[in-house]
Amino acid sequence: MDELNRICKDYENEITDFLRKIISIQSYTGEEKEVAKTIKQTMEQLGYDDIIETEYGDVIGVLGDGNTTILIDSHMDTVVVNDADQWKHDPFGGDVVNGKMYGRGASDMKSAIASSVYAGYFAKKMGLLTGKTVYVSASVMEEDFDGFALKNIIEKLPKKPDAVVIGEPSDRQIALGHRGRALLEVHTKGVSCHGSAPENGVNAVYEMSEIIQRVNELNNTLYKNEGQHGSVVLSKIESTAVSLNAVPDECTIYLDRRLANGETFQVIEKEMNTLIEGTKASWNVYDALGRSYTEKEFAMHSFMESWAMDPEDPITVAMKKAFEGATGEGSKLFHWNFSTNGFASTAKGIPTIGYGPGIMKCCHMKDEHCEMNDVFDATRIYAKFINEFNN
Ligand SMILES: [Zn+2]
């Protein structure tokens, strides 16, 4: 595989230019049109066998037509920049300083797009595609709707993947999974009346206050669990009253509940029923509404269970070999703290593993950057993974 090192070396400038180009195109969630076009063009120029586009605007490059099917997924949307004046480098400039490229999406996760697009190309160039079908996906809207796009992609692909690689940044470690995520709403109703005589009404916010206490207590209890634990936070509260001189008749709180292994819907259902016990409140799972750049509207049911791959699973073993072969270093396994599109593939029972260039603590931060050497290494790691993984 010295051949792979040589080819990758030859293409370092081209990979760098491609990454700079896609960083320079702003692509906030639901606004990925231009970056999608550029990624598609690059796949065409690199001689991808086919390119599939979904109704939501995802771009999936196809290579080979063998039986073992591998999907490498990166999302092309980023979080917004609202602190540009505090950045040392233009967030859409792609400046390279001391081997680091700066810009929104450098770590989360346009570097993985660059690595995976070129890894597919190298795999083809080197003849590593015998018996393989490789899908390289650049997916939409992950930041607000993690799992939604990838679920749809998997359902639309001609072949169901045997392995999915999630390219979110992993600090040169292999990610075996992450906690699940549920967004929950709790509602209380009151009786509106004039604010000058509140005794005539029922205040929906006061009805909620007992529940808010319980949310905080629940979070403290969850932290007492050994090992991986769930968490819950009240992330938003809203109430409606006919005016500022009236008793509010409705109150809603939103809970961001992170789910440990084994915290299924049944577990959360019981927990939520206990949370509102003795009150007149109701609760439900939040349906997040979205609209893609292709102008398709959708609702995403916000309940995704945690996932964790076995360290001895063939997909883990293949990724370890790929990492060790490409870097000459020993591999480390860990679990992400954040959530990813991996929800979608694992919910469909597809073995899924995480590895991506980029620095986790840079995500969503000013001066986001990535090490270009990590990008080149990830390119070779993905190419080797394509070679190593067999169904
Ligand atoms: Zn991300």
From TrEMBL:
Keywords assigned by UniProt, alphabetized: Cobalt, Hydrolase, Metal-binding, Zinc
Co-factor requirement: Zn(2+)
UniProt GO molecular function: acetylornithine deacetylase activity; metal ion binding
Gene3D superfamilies the UniProt entry points to: 3.30.70.360, Zn peptidases
GO biological process: L-arginine biosynthetic process
One matching Pfam family: M20_dimer
SUPFAM superfamilies: Bacterial exopeptidase dimerisation domain, Zn-dependent exopeptidases
Classification via InterPro entries: ArgE/DapE_CS (IPR001261), Bact_exopeptidase_dim_dom (IPR036264), Peptidase_M20 (IPR002933), Peptidase_M20/DapE_YgeY (IPR017706), Peptidase_M20_dimer (IPR011650), Peptidase_M20A (IPR050072)
Domain Peptidase M20 dimerisation residue range list: 177-280
PANTHER family reported for this sequence: ACETYLORNITHINE DEACETYLASE (PTHR43808), N-ACETYL-L-CITRULLINE DEACETYLASE (PTHR43808:SF31)
Protein name, as recorded: Putative selenium metabolism hydrolase
Source organism: Desulfoluna spongiiphila
